[in-house]
């Protein structure tokens, strides 16, 4: 007890309660996330149309599927937890079992918190994206974070579970499903981002003839500038390679004949 970090100094009788509270809190956070996504979906349908509506619906649908997968994961994890406690506590109470295995219990609490936090962050990022105030990259990062925290929860549960446990098998299956749904969120986000960016850059409807001509000339200038810059970078790359080969050759020659003095170069060669 003296060697335990003070930041983790929790009373033994509180650990069991904390596990139950965190799992309940995680479930509540996911339920709330599902409700918020449904609200965003109805808002998107009323405020957007065309490509933007299509993109928003696809992203939000993939987020809903991910939340459902996480909800099933948390339920299965809770069932596995109960099984672990029942099979391992013997004559001890549930509280005593959690206290005796305090390190494992703290890992379980941490993993549960991470899953709930990831779900909340995903919904907030999706909300900002639908309102065109956020970045698509945020959704991608949140999806990766959820996959990582899911792996953490499975690992924490697996430590104490029996290998033949059906609930463990179900939990691992749920974890694979969460990873698949997280990958779908990433895919729908990337394709949606490409669609929106392409539409924004290629939408010339409503432009007058003069405006179109001006845009055309500005684009021609950019193309010429980029071509010139590209040519300059190619020349620079060529010179860098020449210098690299020259230095490499001199280094190899020095290694081969370190004892031999180099012959004096003729003046014509220097020129």
TrEMBL record:
Signal peptide segment: none
Predominant location: cytoplasm
Lineage, top ranks: Eukaryota, Metazoa, Chordata, Craniata, Vertebrata
GO function terms (MF aspect): actin filament binding; clathrin adaptor activity; clathrin light chain binding; phosphatidylinositol-3,4-bisphosphate binding; phosphatidylinositol-3,5-bisphosphate binding
Protein name: HIP1R protein
Species for this entry: Sagittarius serpentarius (Secretary bird)
Ranges of residues in domain I/LWEQ: 7-248
Keyword annotations from UniProtKB, A to Z: Coiled coil, Cytoplasm
InterPro entries assigned: I/LWEQ_dom_sf, ILWEQ_dom, Sla2_fam
Compartments, record wording: Cytoplasm
